[in-house]
Amino acid sequence: MIDTHSHINMVEDLALDEIIKNAKDNGIQKIILPSASVSDIDTVFELTQKYDNVYGLLGIHPTEVKDWTDSLEEKIKEYSKSPKIKGIGEIGLDYYWDKSFNDLQKNVFIKQIKIANELNFPISIHDREAHKDTFDILKEYNKGSTIIMHCFSGSVEFMRECTKEGWYIAIGGVVTFNNALKTKEVAKEVPLDKLLLETDAPYLTPAPFRGKENQPSYIKYVAEEIAKMRNISLKEIDKITTATAERIFNI
Ligand code: NI
After folding, report:
1. What number is the average pLDDT over the span 135-152?
2. Which domains does the chain have, with CATH numbers?
3. What separation in Å is there between the alpha carbon of 164 and the centre of ligand 1?
């Protein structure tokens, strides 16, 4: 199994060695580590050099875009020469926390889409309460990068619009929450070859560990829930989503 979106550098309760060991002990062979803040760009690069099963995505999260400077583009391109850097992320739009700098979010999002296109990298997209703008910007500006809708929070209809574009839908711990009916429906309906699994650790910890910090080893609870809902085996979900992740991220 592969955790396709996991901020293992933000987990506070466990040491990194322990997180990696727990993951390996539970059959999670590879972890994709996205960056969010400016300082993450260095951290992600360093951790990908240290741990052989950790691969990195570079980019600035929409809530952090006030810290964007154009010199970051050079840094991202330089680090991307490493075979351990596999994409751009997480980037996108977040209208949940603060709507006062939506235009800046859009500008920095577009700049980073262009970097991904230039590097021929997949993109891990953060879209929170910004489905329409995220979709429209990707349609207009993305030229050829594979799109992964991380922590997908839209409706089944929006999921269908995305998969029609060839984009991938990543689902995490939310699918285990009893009240997450929309996400459950998406997990049931999404074409299996467009599905990816993720934890978004240390956030969105699946049941039965809700309230604790999340970690890659908990991805099996996400996979189990989806397997149960779709009435297929855990092995089948594992096989298909692992192959998809390996192909998209070239890992
Ligand atoms: Ni994230």
Report:
1. 98
2. 2-249 (3.20.20.140)
3. 24
